[in-house]
Amino acid sequence: MLALRAAFVLAALAAWQLVVVTGAISDDAVAAPTSVARELPAILSDLAFWSAAWDTVRTWGIGLLVSMALAIPIGLVLGSSDLAYRMSRFTIDFLRTIPPVALIPLALLLYGATLQMALLLVVFGSTGPLLLQSMYGAQQVDPQLRDVVRGYLLRRRDVALRLVLPTAAPFIATGVRISATMSLLLAVGAEYIGSAPGLGATIRVYEQTSNIPQMYAYIVVCAGLGALLNLTMMRLERRIMAWAPSHRS
């Protein structure tokens, strides 16, 4: 399987190189993989790159933590009540359809091209999936188990910790993985469009100065960071949730 994946990546790179070299796509718009590869060592050895990467990772990390702190408890509370679940679904679905980039003008007016501006977009965009997954997870509690718990007159805290949370945990884990990837995409997008410090802002600078190979080198780095993040989150999810029936395989 690993060999097949490597072969597919090489084939994609060869196709990319071919369309640029043959002139099917102008090299003023798209840099060839060989040009990008020549730029990567210089970029990775530049302190400015690591400073921008740190800004992006910081925005991603803070935004994801804030999203988790908001979405998980609220989602569990709303999902634990059929009435609250039905009342909140329309509002949540409505807010979830608003593209986070549509809030960039408002965020710029409030905070300017700052970390706070990027965080506003990251939190708004990544809270939705995790909130819904937490609600769905809480809704999956077996009604018979709920009746048993009521019969034993357990405290709400015990019900939440011993029944609702274990049932919802696999859904929450999936939501965290989705939100983690989305947070990174939104962080880079906010930096690119809103000029907040980070990798996205650097990509925009290279685009405006027509440094196409450097621009694509940064894009490749962002793509690699996203792939590494997704792989790491998948492995963490499988390890942490190994006890869950849905993850035992």
TrEMBL record:
PROSITE patterns: ABC_TM1 (PS50928). It is a multi-pass membrane protein. The keyword RNA-binding does not apply. Keywords: Cell membrane, Membrane, Transmembrane, Transmembrane helix, Transport. Gene3D superfamilies: MetI-like. Residues 53-237 form the ABC transmembrane type-1 domain. Pfam families: BPD_transp_1. InterPro entries: MetI-like, MetI-like_sf. The chain crosses the membrane at residues 59-78, 159-180, 215-233. The keyword Mitochondrion does not apply. It is found in: Cell membrane. Belongs to the binding-protein-dependent transport system permease family. This is ABC transporter permease. The lineage of its organism: Bacteria, Bacillati, Actinomycetota, Actinomycetes, Streptosporangiales.
